[in-house]
Write the C-alpha cells for this entry.
Amino acid sequence: MINKNKYNCKHIAKFEQKILRTIKKYKFFDKKDKILVAASGGKDSTVILYILKKYGYNIEATTVDTSISTYSKKNLTNIKGFCKEHGIKLHTMSFREEFGYGLCSLQSILVRKGIKFKSCTACGVLRRYLINKKARVLKPKVIVTGHNLDDEAQSVLINLLKNNLGILARLGPKTGIVKDKKFVPRVKPLYFVSEEEIAAYSKAMNFPVIYERCPCASDSYRNHIRELLNKTGEKTKENIIKYFLEILPKLRKEFQTNEKINYCKICKEPAKAELCQSCKILSLIAQ
C-alpha cells in the first residue's frame, strides 16, 4: 500500500524509471519518432503525457469529447489547460460534431429502440474509430494509450471468462496481430504500473484530473471484475499479467492470419464484416 503522505522525489523517480524501462524493453518508440497520446483528461493519460514530455519525446495529444454532462466538460477543460501549460499540441474531436449526438443521447436512442448496448461498448467503439482516423491524418509512429496494470489484468480475466481467445491474442503491451495501412499501432507504457501507483503519482504532482470513474460506467461488466480483483490484491493482478505474457506468443501464433483485411462499405475503415462496429451502431440509430 502506498502512503501518499510520504510520496517523495525517490518514489517519483522510481515510478518514472519503471515506465521508461517498459518503453525501452518493448521498443515502443524513440525520441525522433512522432507520438500521439490518446488523452482523456484522466489521471492515466495525463501522467503518461507528462512523463513523455519531461523526458523529451516528440508528442502530440488527441482527445474526444463524448459530451457526458459535466464530467466531459471538466475533463476537456483539464486536458486543455494541462496541454497549454506544458506546451503540448492538442487535437480535439467531439461526438456531437462527428456523429450529431453526445454519448448519452446516442445511448438513449438505442434504448428506446430496444437495442441493448452497454455505454462503455458504444463509447469505446466510437472513440477508437475517431482516434484512429485522426491518427492517420497526423501520421504518428504509434498511438500511446493510458492502459495500466489493473486495466490489463481485468481485460485478460474478462476474455478468459468469456473464452475470447482471439481477442486475448490482440492484447499486450503492443496491441494487435494484423498489420494494415489503416491501423496505427497502439502501445501501453503504463502496462506494468498499478492504478494505485498512478493515482499516488498524479496527486503528488498535483495534476488537474478527476479521480472519480465515468458516471456512464456503472453498468459495465468490467466493474464487477475490477471489484473482484481489488479484493484479491495487487499480487494477483501482477500474476495474471505474468501468466498472460508467457502464453501470449502461443496465442498470437495460433490466431495469426494472412487473410486480407476487410473494409467497411460505408466508411472504408478496417472491419471484420461488411460494416465496422461504428457504422453498425450509427446505422441502428438512424433506423
About this structure: Strands lie at 34-38, 58-65, 90-94, 142-144, 186-187, 262-263, 270-271. The chain has one domain: 4-256. The first strand starts at residue 34 and ends at 38. Residues 4-256 form a domain with the Rossmann fold fold (CATH 3.40.50.620).
